[in-house]
Design goal:
single chain; mainly beta; two-stranded antiparallel sheet; about 0% helix
């Protein structure tokens, strides 16, 4: 339900992306690291702004859970 973003060099938490109502199955960063796409069992894909940790787009209407997301430039 929550995606946590960590700094690998400091082991510190950078953000907690909350909004999915069921398990998140896939996460993908944009090439410039400014956005994160998430998808899960709630049949919703969300796009997040990495600077603010807020959802900037929501794609609903899928008929099954999301098992994979990808971001292209």
């Amino acid at each position: 339900k929550t995606v946590r973003v960590w700094d690998a060099t400091t082991d510190g938490a950078l953000a907690a992306l909350e909004g999915h109502t069921q398990r998140v199955c896939s996460v993908a960063f944009s090439a410039d690291s400014t956005k994160i796409a998430t998808g899960g069992e709630d049949k919703i894909v969300r796009v997040w702004d990495t600077a603010t940790g807020t959802a900037i787009a929501t794609f609903a209407g899928h008929t099954d859970g999301i098992s994979s997301v990808a971001v292209s430039s």
